[in-house]
Write a sequence for this structure.
């Protein structure tokens, strides 16, 4: 098995190296064949691993493959932990990545950086595999940083665009903030357990009981710090600002990184660390509340966006909020379940948006679209599936996962849980509203496409439509088939720890669960369903039936609208306080400490000192051999004197 | 107490590498006499071949149980075998580089190779020496060969001067060493390392004995410090490095350092380990002086060979610090350091030689201006080597320094470690200056690389390995630790 795991991780790396270094020589066709082949191998093997671990209930594989460094008793290794959680993640990541690879052939067709792009996305796939397969914090951090790096490269892929460069810098810096917390958390883990290996850390959790740090329980501090890392990667308020900006990258990247995989790293990490989070109700409450804020308020922003990708991006933020809420109420498996369904339908929606963008010659404003249904039937139908899955229409994938999250919150006994419940239910209305607003504006109604584009408008190439269809299928049905085994029949049991006495959500859920089919008729009687219907209806009214009402509402509630359009002012706040403040601080430090102290005294001073010493020592090196010999003998004399008469216990005493 | 020499042939197998090498030297010397001008390359290939076989024989003996033969004067243990394998490998690489230099500067003579092999034989004897006499014998075989090797460029006054300086000062150092040995012999009554060790670690050692042992110890330390080139017995180093033909500089700055460390281990640890509290203070002072002086004075150099001489002095300081710790892991760190140092030095001198042409020594730092434009690949290789020497992660040179510092800190020498780091930072300045010349300045003259393919290949591998092993240093660290 070990070789299989290694192949899964290394096949995309090999593809990335070949595409990166030899892509120019090999040409486009060979490059995409090789990279796709690499990911295909990983996908097939990932399915095999899934079958072995999840379906056949194989043994957990936890082994160090290579000792990178040994410092004292601290062992830093490259190792794999393959359990059911990892297996699920492997399948999701490799499948979505494969689809994106194929899609890229069509999407990047006219781009000069074709081979470079393939190299990057394969490298990204490798990084994500390393992240999910890791059995220790160090490798987790490696994968964590590697996906961050590749994401930086890809957001700024069109580096001649100034906005892209700005966006990738922003993404990188915001992620640094998260990583800083994450690294501190890892440091604390190391401090209390003396190890970075998951198994050893989890088994020494008892060490933390009754320990305090900064007035909180030690374990709470650790969990909160780790969660800061998750907030950065999984774009939770207030570290979410990078994700909408990241839409500057090419669309396949938005699908792969900013919807299906990288942003899920935080969710995955918290689930992996469930034995630690279970010990701290404070941390769990914070997780839940942050998730709820993200879910509700980021969804609201989706309503006022007019860029097709931005709408999808804000819906990603909102859905990540849902997953985080699930983590907070100890429904880790539900979070992973939503992560999985979301990966499929969100990748589908992004790729569908990309298909529209290509057809529209890179026009992204939904106000300039409309009536595309006839021209692009495949895109239309797949987008419909994706949208229905996203809003949680009964029967579709997103329905099961989102419904479970809402129910889990309902059963939670954490403080503020009832408020969070209202937030996530309200979120359903908002999700349905912005999703269908976009859907109607793009595909229905009168065409607002300009005349020139209209003439060339046609369905995209097969390399684009194939992944759409391939993703539409799981988006529709995967929830139905996997909800039972994944949540209630132990697929994830060997990876997740829940303190069932304190956190009852999962137990209660399994009490009311009577099969996937039974959920559909039951859903019609629940509040979320009618919230969703209301959302769709509102969207229909405002974007198709009476469009002028939208303007009226905008004018009437211009303050709210202003707050939404300025994205609650997060960006401006960062701009003024952090960017401006740090610039001022930097200026001050530059003038006072850098120019004044370091340059004048330390650098120039030490250079002068070194020069002085050199000029003293150099004349001794005369080049005359008798000087050298004399120097040797003289040194001998001094040393002998020192050894015999000086020191702590001289060998000879001088007597007078 | 006189021992009769036992000549059991099975025991001779233990010294097989030495015996094979000695026989090859005789054969090569004879064969070379009869080679006509067009066939001189045969000597080179024979040399490489015998080095390879010797290395192979030594490799075979790794894992052999510790055996002492020849009346307790010759030891075979893992340290000896591993060191020998490394010495053979390093010499082979050095010979690949040397060949280009020798042909360019019309120094390609049979004697050159024979002298190199003889010095290697001397080093092997040093590595395996188990009595003061054998150690001294090995040292003299090595030194005499090296003096001659330097003087082989006899039409250059610089080389003759260097050879003579080295010879005169080396003779003084040998004298001091011998005097120290005689003191030890006088008080312990034995030349054998294990008997000396038994004598020195006797708990009832009287104050008179302690005094005389330490008196001798000072001379021994000085003799070893001279061989290593530690301050204040370093004065020969810059002059000899600069004056010698570059290929000889490369050889004498690399492989003999392994032998010197081996001699240090045999005498000061295997023999006088009980006296560690006495000699470690001395070592600490010499080591810090070496690091300080090496780092600071190197800043003033314009000649790259001279600069590398001072850089060697500061590297030697680091190696000695490993022995100050007084723990096995510290000795392992020092051993790791010396092997890494040899590996980096070979590559650094390799690049100097690579750029050599007839009438152009490439030994001024200004000669490297704009190298990145003429020869980007080798500029990159030089970059790796220089960064490694400066101790920048993830190069190999970082780990060797890190390992030493870590051992120092865990042995409680925190202040010493901090001082060493400060000087390591200062030394980064002159290393970076070379990089600046290579990448950010325009060249004054055209540099054309005319070296043969084998040299380019080996040199590239050598430099790339510095990076690659730096990424995976684990195996080599463990190997170095396992020797003690």
């Amino acid at each position: 098995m070990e070789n299989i795991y290694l192949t899964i991780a290394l096949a995309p790396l090999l593809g990335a190296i070949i595409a990166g270094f030899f892509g120019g020589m090999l040409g486009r066709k060979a490059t995409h064949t090789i990279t796709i082949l690499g990911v295909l191998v990983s996908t097939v093997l990932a399915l095999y691993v899934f079958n072995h671990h999840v379906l056949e209930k194989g043994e957990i594989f936890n082994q160090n493959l290579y000792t990178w460094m040994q410092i004292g008793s601290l062992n830093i290794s490259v190792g794999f932990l393959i359990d059911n959680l990892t297996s699920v993640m492997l399948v999701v990541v490799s499948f979505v990545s494969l689809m994106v690879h194929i899609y890229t052939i069509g999407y990047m067709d006219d781009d000069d950086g074709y081979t470079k792009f393939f190299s990057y996305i394969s490298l990204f796939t490798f990084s994500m595999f390393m992240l999910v397969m890791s059995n220790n914090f160090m490798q987790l951090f490696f994968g964590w940083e590697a996906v961050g790096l590749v994401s930086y490269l890809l957001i700024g892929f069109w580096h001649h665009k100034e906005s892209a460069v700005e966006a990738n810098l922003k993404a990188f810096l915001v992620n640094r903030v998260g990583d800083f917390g994450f690294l501190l958390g890892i440091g604390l883990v190391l401090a209390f357990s003396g190890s970075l290996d998951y198994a050893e850390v989890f088994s020494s959790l008892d060490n933390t009981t009754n320990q305090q740090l900064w007035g909180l329980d030690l374990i709470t501090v650790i969990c909160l710090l780790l969660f800061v890392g998750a907030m950065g990667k999984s774009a939770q308020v207030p570290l979410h600002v990078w994700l909408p900006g990241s839409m500057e990258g090419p669309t396949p990247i938005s699908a792969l990184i900013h919807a299906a995989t990288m942003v899920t790293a935080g969710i995955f990490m918290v689930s992996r660390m469930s034995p630690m989070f279970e010990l701290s109700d404070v941390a769990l409450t914070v997780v839940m509340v942050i998730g709820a804020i993200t879910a509700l308020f980021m969804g609201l922003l989706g309503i006022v966006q007019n860029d097709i990708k931005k709408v999808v991006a804000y819906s990603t933020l909102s859905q990540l909020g849902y997953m985080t809420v699930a983590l907070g109420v100890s429904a880790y498996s539900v979070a992973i379940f939503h992560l999985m369904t979301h990966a499929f339908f969100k990748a589908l929606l992004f790729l569908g948006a990309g298909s529209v963008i290509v057809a529209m010659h890179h026009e992204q404003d939904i106000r300039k679209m409309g009536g595309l249904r006839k021209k692009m039937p495949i895109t239309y139908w797949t987008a419909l599936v994706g949208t229905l899955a996203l809003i949680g229409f009964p029967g579709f994938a997103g329905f099961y996962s989102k419904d479970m999250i809402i129910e889990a919150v309902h059963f939670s006994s954490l403080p503020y849980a009832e408020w969070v419940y209202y937030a996530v239910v309200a979120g359903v209305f908002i999700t349905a509203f912005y999703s269908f607003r976009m859907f109607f504006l793009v595909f229905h109604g009168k065409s607002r496409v300009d005349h020139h584009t209209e003439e060339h408008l046609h369905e995209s190439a097969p390399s684009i439509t194939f992944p759409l269809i391939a993703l539409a299928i799981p988006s529709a049905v995967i929830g139905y088939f996997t909800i039972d085994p994944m949540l209630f029949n132990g697929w994830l049991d060997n990876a997740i720890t829940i303190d069932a006495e304190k956190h009852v959500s999962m137990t209660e859920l399994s009490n009311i669960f009577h099969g996937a089919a039974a959920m559909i008729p039951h859903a019609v009687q629940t509040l979320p369903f009618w919230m969703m219907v209301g959302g769709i209806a509102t969207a229909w009214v405002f974007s198709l039936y009476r469009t002028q009402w939208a303007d009226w509402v905008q004018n009437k509630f211009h303050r709210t609208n202003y707050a939404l359009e300025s994205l609650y002012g997060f960006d401006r706040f960062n701009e003024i306080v952090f960017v401006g403040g740090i610039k001022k601080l930097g200026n001050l430090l530059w003038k006072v400490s850098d120019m004044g102290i370091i340059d004048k005294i330390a650098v120039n001073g030490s250079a002068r000192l070194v020069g002085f010493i050199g000029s003293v020592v150099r004349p001794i090196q005369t080049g005359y051999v008798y000087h050298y010999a004399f120097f040797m003998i003289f040194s001998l004399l001094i040393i002998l004197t020192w050894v015999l008469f000086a020191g702590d216990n001289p060998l000879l005493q001088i007597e007078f | 107490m006189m021992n009769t020499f036992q000549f059991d042939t099975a025991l001779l197998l233990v010294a097989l590498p030495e015996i094979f090498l000695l026989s090859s030297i005789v054969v090569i010397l004879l064969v070379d006499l009869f080679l006509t001008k067009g066939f001189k390359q045969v000597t080179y290939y024979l040399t490489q071949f015998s080095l390879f076989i010797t290395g192979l024989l030594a490799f075979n003996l790794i894992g052999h149980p510790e055996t002492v033969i020849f009346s307790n004067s010759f030891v075979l243990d893992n340290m000896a075998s591993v060191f020998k394998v490394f010495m053979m490998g390093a010499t082979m690489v050095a010979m690949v580089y040397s060949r280009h230099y020798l042909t360019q500067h019309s120094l390609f003579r049979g004697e050159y190779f024979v002298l190199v092999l003889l010095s290697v034989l001397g080093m092997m004897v040093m590595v395996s020496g188990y009595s003061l006499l054998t150690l001294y014998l090995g040292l003299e075989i090595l030194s005499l060969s090296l003096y001659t090797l330097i003087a082989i460029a006899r039409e250059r006054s610089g080389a003759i001067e260097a050879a003579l300086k080295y010879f005169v000062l080396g003779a003084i150092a040998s004298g001091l060493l011998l005097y120290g040995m005689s003191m030890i012999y006088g008080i312990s009554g034995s030349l054998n390392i294990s008997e000396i060790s038994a004598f020195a670690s006797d708990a009832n050692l009287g104050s008179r004995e302690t005094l005389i042992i330490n008196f001798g110890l000072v001379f021994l330390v000085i003799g070893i410090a001279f061989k290593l080139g530690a301050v204040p017995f370093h004065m020969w180093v810059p002059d000899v490095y600069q004056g010698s033909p570059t290929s000889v500089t490369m050889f004498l700055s690399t492989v003999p350092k392994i032998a010197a460390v081996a001699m240090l281990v045999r005498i000061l640890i295997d023999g006088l380990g009980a006296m560690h509290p006495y000699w470690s203070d001395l070592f600490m002072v010499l080591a810090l002086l070496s690091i300080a002086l090496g780092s600071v004075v190197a800043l003033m150099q314009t000649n790259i060979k001279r600069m590398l001489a001072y850089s060697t002095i500061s590297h030697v300081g680091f190696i000695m610090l490993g022995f100050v710790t007084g723990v096995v892991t510290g000795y392992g760190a020092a051993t790791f350091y010396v092997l890494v140092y040899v590996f980096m030095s070979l590559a650094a001198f390799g690049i100097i030689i690579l750029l050599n042409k007839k009438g152009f020594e490439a030994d001024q730092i200004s000669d490297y201006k704009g190298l990145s434009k003429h020869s980007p690949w080798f500029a990159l290789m030089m970059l790796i080597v220089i960064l490694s020497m400066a101790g920048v992660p993830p190069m190999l040179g970082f780990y060797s320094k890190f390992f030493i510092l870590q051992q120092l800190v865990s042995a409680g020498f925190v202040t010493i470690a901090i001082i060493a780091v400060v000087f390591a930072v200062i030394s980064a300045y002159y290393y970076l200056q070379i990089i600046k010349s290579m990448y950010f300045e325009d060249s004054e003259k055209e540099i054309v690389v005319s070296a043969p393919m084998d040299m380019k290949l080996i040199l590239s591998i050598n430099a790339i390995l510095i990076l690659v092993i730096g990424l995976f240093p684990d195996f080599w660290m463990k190997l170095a630790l396992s020797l003690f």
Chain A has 26 helices and four strands. The beta strands of chain A are 61-71, 74-82, 212-213, 216-217. The interface with chain B takes residues 66-72, 606, 610-611, 613-615, 617-618, 620-621, 623, 625, 627-629, 631-633, 635-636, 639-640, 643-644, 647, 651-652 of chain A (CB under 8 Å).
